[in-house]
Amino acid sequence: MEDLDCNAESEEKLNFRATDFEFRNRFWLIGAIFSLGFACYSLDQLNACEALARLILGQAAGTDSPALDRLERIIFVAGVLLVVLAALIRSWAVAYLHSSVVHDTNIHSDRLVADGPYRYLRNPLYFGNALLALGMGLLASRIGYVVIVAGMILFNYRLILREEAGLFAAGAESYRQYFAAVPRLFPSPWPRVPAGRGIPNWPDGFAGESFIWGFAGGMVAFAATERLSYFWIVTSVGFAIYFFQSYRRTRRKGQG
Length: 256
Prior knowledge:
- By secondary structure, the protein is mainly alpha-helical.
- It has one domain (7-198): Up-down Bundle (Four Helix Bundle (Hemerythrin (Met), subunit A)), CATH 1.20.120.
- It is built from twelve helices and no strands.
- The N and C termini lie far apart (42 Å).
């Protein structure tokens, strides 16, 4: 069982958690991690999919080997499925938490959500981010893949520690009990807390994660056509919808 007292946060954790600046700008910093990863093609031209396929096949992987091509495609399809799963998990989480909270630049520690995916793990959104990195990173080079996956996991961990500090500071006993019962980042195979009375808002959940669905759709389009232009077109549509939704949320918040 994880400690529930303030002592649970060691000095190392206090020093490692994200700053307010990082939390407010997490969307752009995550984008910077992906950009840095893809920029690593300037250092390493071998794609992560091909590198993994060659590693699995060993000496049997010739330059124009049909087996190599098939395995590369299988690996990439697995990556596409990871991104789709990431989008599904994040949409499920947003449906219960609400997009105005998920994409706010401020930490919300005024209420505890323990429904839907939050019954299985405390941070389904960050778990979805990790799956996104594992899947989308296959578009990068070998070095880029490491940068994207390691960068995403470390940054997410910093964000989690920042959020947990805010929730513990609020002093709610219900969160301490929830903290003890539900794993932080690796999902439990069964619910760890009883179902509450939360009602999911599925349209908000899917619309709020339109940029993740843009990535998923873009990778599906690329897997089906092998044309990178289709990936960027579909991804751009997802981002356009996301920024339109963000504009509407900001405007409603200003009017409120």
